[in-house]
Amino acid sequence: MPWYVVLLIVLALLTVPFFLGGYMARKLRMPDHGWKIGVVLWALASGLVVTVFGWPPHLGIDLSGGVILVYEIDQQKKANPNQSLGKDQMEKLIAAVSRRVNPGGVKEVTIREYGVEQIEIIVPEANESELRRLKKIVSSVGTLEFRILANNRDHKSLMERATQESGNVIKDSTGNVLAWWVPAQLGEENSFESYPEIARRTRKIRGHDMLEVLVVKDTFDVNGGYLKQAMSDVDRRGRPCVTFVFNSAGGRLFGGLTGNNLPDEVQDFTRKLGIILDGFLYSAPAIQSTIHERGEITGDFTQEEVEDLVGVLNAGALPTALSKDPISEMLTGPTLGRDTIERGKYAMLASMILVLLFMLVYYRFAGIVASAALLMNLVLILGIMITIHAAFTLPGLAGLVLTVGMAVDANVLVFERIREEVARGAALRMAIRNGFARATTTIVDANLTTLIVATVLYVIGHDQIKGFAVILWLGVVLSMFTAIFCSRVVFDIAERRRWITKLHMMRILGRTQIDFLGMRHVAWAISIAVIVVGLAGVVARGKGLLDIDFTGGVSVETLFIKPQNIADIRKTLNELPDLAVSDVQIEGEPQGVRFVINTSQQGEVAPVAQENIPAVDVVEDHLKKVFVDERTKTSLLAHNSMTVSNLKAIGPARKSPAEKKPAEEKPAAPSDKAQTGNDLPPNSQLASADPSAVLLAQAEKAKPPAEKPAKASEKKPEKTPIEAVDKPDKAGDDQFQGGTSAKLDFAQRVNYDSLEDMFTEEFKSGSLGKAVAFDLSNPSYTEGDGTAYADWTAKVQLPPEEAQKLFDSIARRLADTPFFPSSNSIGGKVAGSTQVQAIYALAASLLFIVGYIWIRFQRVMFGLAAVVALVHDVMITLGMIALSYFVAPYLGILLIDPFKISLSVLAAFLTIIGYSLNDTIVVFDRIREVRGKAPQLSAEMINTSINQTLSRTLLTSITTLLVVVVLYVAGGQGIHAFAFSLVVGILVGTYSSIFVASPVLFWMTRSARSKRSNREALPKTA
To answer: What is the pTM of this model?
Structure first.
């Protein structure tokens, strides 16, 4: 949208509502209400404009799909293991990782500090292929070194020492490093067999027999820090390669290093320059003459590997090394997120209709005002969320639905107060004024405590919980604005204009005189019994009660070919520790084909290679092994499938320049300083003994480098060429002439990177005996797009018969690979940190609440009584979650699953604290009002207060339960445990405000009064 249009909209929003407000106020003969009407119109118009023009809102990873990785600093590779990294160092680390993950800055990637010496990487809409790539480039140290290999002519004594000593580093008498052993990159060992003059040894590293080569320390220390730019290119054999340019300082040092190690032409002896990437020796080409600023790294790379290497080299080495594997990783597929959003919309719509109908029927005109305030509240929440670019997360979506129920509470408080004023004989105008005035104090007190909980959640919680906290915070604040300010404006106008002369409301209860305190002993006995049974369930489940958020472990979403019985799945997987299996149903799928499997399974060590196997891989491998049809020996797990259509040849075949004989080629004779990529002709300056190894070459003098080398993005090599690719004979020729085009349709959507990997892996497997160029396209795809599509068009440089074999092989590979839509792995350190955060969140919430109530009610016993009720509510809810495991097989009709304590359930606990406290404060506020200036608090005062607020308590519980029950039934598996906790918590919170908090307050005041009387009765001593 053009800037001037945005400016006009902003100016209109700042002027038109207030102009209309003034105009309406004059028409209504209420000039003092002009600014009030203007504020209401401005808020509503702003919310609508932002929501309409900013739609759709930003979605979190758990709804949109994507990857979240958490890495920690490798303590063994820190310069000072005993000293934590400072803020500046962490910022440099985050910047370096950002340059690798998002080199162009165009992706919506979040990289930030997570915990102590930990960083979090969030990449929306990334898939499993992108996850593997991210893990590879993030953990790479990114170091590039050039070292001279020790040889038996220059370093004979050093080589003898190195072969005799068992250590990895050779030092002199003063401790200075002279040489060290560098492991050869796996697959490149043959590159060094033709060098008899160098020092080699074989050593077992992580279960592998690794070849190591001795390199010597030099004074030039040429490394990647001197790189000016690295670029993607194609070498003389048509293979993807990396070209690089040193800055002037690096060029001087590189010239010195190569110039000091020139060949001995008399004895035909050449020295070898080792190219070391991330601590592994890739190649050692022979130095032929002095080289300065420009070079080339080539080898058996794929195009994707070259692009990743370019990104890593341009980003530079990390300030400090990260752990090889992430300590936590989450891969979320978009399918479950889309289903959750759809279910959330239906749940919100259903709950809103129920609440609005209830309010309209029960409160009549006042219900219309409350319904309008509720709708305005939702519009304002959406508008603010879009304005501040806050992401809607799964708990946040649940919080938005929950706001529908909680926002009604303020209106109910006002309406019940107005009812009381009318019952006392007040005129309607006075009843409205007093009702709003007296209810406002209670509303502010009740909602401020919920704001305390929301603030604690935001400060301490993770991203998903922060999303819930933001919506809860906005919902509470905006509900006060709409219920206290906006509703008051509507009531004032309606009463002044005589649109209403009397408020008609239904009454759920008449005047009651129930002796609630008289029932406190029975209530306490019931509460204690329920808590004891619940705690027994907690002890019985032990660690199994906690989800992987707190224990560490794996969560994997599985998809089966045909419906399965959940009991059979649990029995089949009983070897997995702390197992929990939940049935997930996506719209359009039969029930029993999709499940989420949670287990505290940790990673393992491979018995042969002695390498760490990530926990996700351990669980997925186990699932592949156990879910096999015994009769057909085929997997029961669903897999992706690919169908090929519109297979057709692309034009006539043509002769490729690559087919010409070498004798026909007439290369220009290089100058003295020119450098080519072979040992021959003899005037080349640097070459490799093995043409498949990594080469370092200087550009020919006939084509000197530009002052500003072109960016890698400006040169676009063919996508994933593995070997030499035929180039067009003339400009405009289609390089795929003589090849094949076909349409590929997938059962499960795939994105570009995944499909590219399929072709690359197929070429690497050697099934065709060669690799060719290919191109993938979709009408909606743009370069860098991570969106998955169900159909793609593929072009390959193969005749139709061979192309069909290629496509068939890829289809078979897909059919043999089970499909896991999403997975989540949490390491022990992250889980431990989450446990600490959970304890802090609960403790901080209770502490702040006690402090606030103490200040507000001027006596600490009010705060302590409220906390006793809160602890009571949390313990009962905790017990119900623990017992769900034992009753789930028998109460499936109630949709009860074996629930666990997760981060979303923790958010539910804190929400219960806020809700229960809201109820309790309403009662306490009425107790303070009824007591007035009486010196003592009596049982009659407490009973009167509870009876007077009973109607409001029940109405708020009914409206909130309507919403939460709909959320529980229709909200989907992602928030099922959250909704269950809220259902239990709201019921228990309503009970505790009447039968726990108030009786405990009475017991505390009587106990304090008794102690004071005893002290006064003691005889005074002289």
So the answer is: 0.67
